[in-house]
């Protein structure tokens, strides 16, 4: 019995395609670059060295090196599973109202004037990157309603690798850097930072990290925040008051801002040292040198310390 020939519908989609015949309309779909985390984890899994250590990722690890659930999270899950009043239902497009209300209070403080005056909107997103993308989309569309907004977005140098792509995907192409970390001083260089921001055009958007700056781990002090906010009049210590202070301070000055808050960073090693750690010591870190501290335990602490010492002191 003969088979029907390949056919094409009006939109060009191939039906009953034969091998070697017409290509699908999705053949030339753009393939995203492989995430560095994925590539590194794949190399780690293939490594057979007995003392190999994976220090990337952002999960919490137990003393045995296994991912685990925080006790508080487990307790809340148990409470939810036994609550007879809970019913499965779709949340609103803005997320769970009670969750966003509480999260906003954490970021701004319950007595915040902005909250009291009902000038705050909280939206639940899938993670930190989702919040940044939503903020970028809002900026582009809001400014786009007027004459074209062609001002740049300023990101710290260095910054989270994902930020540039997030703003570009939202249609904002003019991405610039402001000086942040000074390799020689091993600290934030406020003078150069202020110099870059002073030269920024009006209506520029400046992205600042309230706490746990990634990838340096170096945060601005309250005094530095005060100086920067005077110029602009544009969370991970484990202490909510300390983490949220920069956001609350900016809000208290009447500044309008977006706050991307994560509920889900840092130790710097770079270049040849990272290659040494991976190839010769089987210690896996991302190129930015950040370490997942929860991956360090009593079983691998000595080996990691020795490996880092050798990476910093051995002639490469």
**Secondary-structure class:** mainly alpha
Strand content: 5-15%
Termini, distance in Å? 69 Å
Low-pLDDT parts are 1-17, 234-238, 265-270
Average pLDDT for all residues:
80
> How much helix is in the residues?
25-40%
Helix and strand arrangement:
Layout: E1 7-8, E2 14-15, H1 36-46, E3 53-54, H2 71-81, H3 97-108, H4 113-116, H5 127-144, E4 153-157, H6 162-169, E5 175-179, E6 181-182, E7 187-188, H7 190-198, E8 205-206, H8 222-232, H9 240-252, H10 271-281, E9 283-284, H11 301-313
Parallel strand pairs: 3-9, 4-5, 4-8
Antiparallel strand pairs: 1-2, 6-7
Structure write-up:
- The protein is 38% helix and 8% strand.
- The chain is built from eleven helices and nine strands.
- The protein has helices spanning 36-46, 71-81, 97-108, 113-116, 127-144, 162-169, 190-198, 222-232, 240-252, 271-281, 301-313; strands at residues 7-8, 14-15, 53-54, 153-157, 175-179, 181-182, 187-188, 205-206, 283-284.
- Strands 5-4-8 form a three-stranded parallel sheet. Strands 1-2 form a two-stranded antiparallel ribbon.
- Helix 10 crosses helix 11 (301-313).
- Mean pLDDT is 80; it is low at 1-17, 234-238 and 265-270.
């Amino acid at each position: 019995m003969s088979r029907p020939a390949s056919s094409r519908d009006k939109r060009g989609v191939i039906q009953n395609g034969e091998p070697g015949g017409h290509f699908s309309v999705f053949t030339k779909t753009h393939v995203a670059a492989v995430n560095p985390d994925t590539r590194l984890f794949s190399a780690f899994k293939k490594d057979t060295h007995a003392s190999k250590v994976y220090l990337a990722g952002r999960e919490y690890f137990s003393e045995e090196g296994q991912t685990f659930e925080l006790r508080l999270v487990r307790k809340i899950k148990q409470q939810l599973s036994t609550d007879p009043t809970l019913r499965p239902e779709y949340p609103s497009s803005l997320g769970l109202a009670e969750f966003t209300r509480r999260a906003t209070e954490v970021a701004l403080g319950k007595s915040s004037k902005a909250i009291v005056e009902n000038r705050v909107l909280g939206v639940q997103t899938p993670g930190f990157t989702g919040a940044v993308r939503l903020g970028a989309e809002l900026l582009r569309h809001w400014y786009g309603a007027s004459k074209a907004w062609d001002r740049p977005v300023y990101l710290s140098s260095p910054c989270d690798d994902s930020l540039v792509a997030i703003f570009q995907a939202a249609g904002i192409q003019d991405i610039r850097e402001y000086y942040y970390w000074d390799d020689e001083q091993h600290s934030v260089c406020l003078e150069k930072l202020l110099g870059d921001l002073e030269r920024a055009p009006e209506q520029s958007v400046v992205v600042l990290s309230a706490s746990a700056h990634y990838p340096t781990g170096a945060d601005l002090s309250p005094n530095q925040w005060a100086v920067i906010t005077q110029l602009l009049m544009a969370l991970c210590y484990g202490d909510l008051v300390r983490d949220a202070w920069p956001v609350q301070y900016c809000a208290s000055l009447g500044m309008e801002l977006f706050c991307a808050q994560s509920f889900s960073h840092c130790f710097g090693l770079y270049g040849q040292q990272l290659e040494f750690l991976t190839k010769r010591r089987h210690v896996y870190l991302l190129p930015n040198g950040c370490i997942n501290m929860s991956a360090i335990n009593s079983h691998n602490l000595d080996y990691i310390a020795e490996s880092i010492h050798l990476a910093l002191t051995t002639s490469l």
